[in-house]
Design brief:
mainly alpha, single chain, 3 helices, 0% strand, 136 residues
Length: 136
């Protein structure tokens, strides 16, 4: 009878310990789920930011190309060409800086993406587009 009572007390203690451990595990799971939701939202924002940066880089490259063509035309056809070419080159230089800044931001976003989700930026964009398409 004493052995049964001791076993019963021991089983109750183990049950309480397991209940505490189960509750702790549930809290960790809830916390991790919340963290995943926050991470997914941040990832969506980062993907949108990336797409915007890519557009900015493309626009800057187009503008630089256009200004270089204009600079060449001014230089070839006008006696004020060198002066106008310097102005156009100055604008092109500013656009080159803007493009380089956007590319740096893009590279930083790509490295942050790899560090955060262990996937390349293109993989994250593809996954995000698939997730967004299936969500709607």
């Amino acid at each position: 009878m004493e052995r049964l009572e001791e076993a019963s007390v021991e089983l109750e203690a183990r049950a309480k310990a397991l209940t505490v451990e189960l509750e702790s595990t549930r809290r960790r799971v809830d916390h991790l789920r919340a963290t995943v939701v926050v991470g997914e939202a941040q990832l969506d924002r980062d993907v949108r930011s990336l797409e915007s940066l890519r557009g900015d880089v493309s626009l800057a490259e187009d503008m630089v190309s256009s200004l270089r063509v204009k600079a060449d035309e001014f230089e070839a056809g006008d006696q004020d060409g060198p002066w106008r070419a310097r102005i156009a080159a100055g604008r092109g230089g500013r656009l080159d800086i803007a493009r380089a800044t956007a590319e740096t931001d893009l590279a930083h976003l790509a490295s942050a993406c790899v560090a955060t989700v262990q996937a390349s930026l293109d993989e994250v964009i593809t996954e995000s587009r698939i997730s967004n398409a299936t969500a709607t």
